[in-house]
Amino acid sequence: MALFLCLLFVLVSSAAACDRCVHQSKVAYFSKASALSSGACGYGSLALGLGDGHLAAGVSSLYKDGAGCGACFQIRCKNSTLCSSKGTRVTLTDLNHDNQTDFVLSSRAFMAMANQGMGLDILKLGIVDVEYKRIPCEYKNQNLAVRVEESSQKPNYLAIKLLYQGGQTEIVGMDVAQVGSSNWNFMSRNYGAVWDTSRVPNGALQFRFVVTAGFDGKWIWAKSVLPADWKTGVVYDTGVQITEIAQEGCSPCDDGHWQ
Predict the structure, then answer these.
(1) Which has fewest Cβ within 10 Å: 2, 120, 179, 215?
(2) Which is it for strands 128-135 and 23-30: parallel, antiparallel or unpaired?
(3) Residue 203: which region, alpha, beta or left (left: phi > 0; alpha: psi -120 to 50)?
(4) Which CATH fold would you assign to the domain 23-135?
């Protein structure tokens, strides 16, 4: 397990090395936000509570087989006549299968790139040239939370969805144990933001997460999360906030011009 995590850290660090560098691409938009909230990350209607409803589908290199779910980006279009220099901030909730653009945004997020009063004008363009970079997610007074999925079945199967992941990190590993026990069982990413296990300990449950941080990884321990009588469909507070930042290792990618 330790060797696996070390290799995983190297792979993730390499793949995410330029996350905060500025990238050049194009973005389009969905006319309905529901198309993104029902996306590959599995957030469902809860997606509308992430990033003020400024949602995005990202290409596979950003989605990262689900590890990129919940990641935050700042995007600004390069049409100086229509668009502001501030741009928009979005949360990744879906996989974009069309490689013609790195992102497909909710219409709300797409219009937010425009100067005041020009939202409808930018919508008429449909696709715009942009530059973007990865930024930390910020959830004030909101800890990392887990939602017990309806597919969970006591006592043998538990599926949870991770919500409100802060910082600029990706969760790349996750374990579960009974509160007070050191007998940890690993969980697997089922899809998107959903993790599961068929080896569910009895009693109240604690979790520990491996997140990308610095140039390597870091354990985050949530000591008491699910009560012994946990129920499906309920969101539980982990009591921890993830604020770590994954460092860049890409000197050719310079974001110094981003003002």
Answers:
(1) 2
(2) antiparallel
(3) left
(4) Barwin-like endoglucanases (2.40.40)
Count of CB atoms situated within 10 Å of the CB of 6: 12
Q: Indicate the burial class of 87 (C-beta count within 10 angstroms; 0-12, 13-18, 19 or more).
A: buried
Rounded Cα–Cα distance for residues 246 and 66 (Å): 17
Q: For residue 176, which of 236, 233, 246 has the smallest C-alpha distance?
A: 236
Whole-angstrom CA distances from 130 to 22, 110, 126, 248 are: 10, 11, 13, 21
Query: Hey, where are the domains in the chain?
Result: 23-135, 144-240
* Contact between residue 216 and residue 245 where contact means Cβ atoms under 8 Å apart: no
Q: Return the H-helix or E-strand segment holding 199.
A: none
CATH topology of domain 144-240: Immunoglobulin-like (2.60.40)
Note the pLDDT tens digit of each residue in 153-180.
999 999 999 999 999 989 999 999 999 9
Supply 83's token pair: 């668009």
> 211 near 220, Cβ under 8 Å?
yes
Residue 35: per-residue pLDDT: 63
**Residue ranges of E strands in the chain:** 23-30, 55-58, 72-77, 88-95, 103-106, 128-135, 145-148, 158-163, 171-178, 185-191, 194-197, 205-213, 216-226, 235-237
Closest CA to 14 of 171, 173, 256, 246: 246
Most confident segment among 19-28, 29-38, 136-145: 136-145
10 Å CB burial of residue 9 (0-12, 13-18, 19+) is buried
198 C-beta neighbours (distance < 10 Å), count: 12
Same fold for the domain at 23-135 and the one at 144-240? no
Name the nearest CA neighbour of 12 among 252, 254, 246. Answer: 246
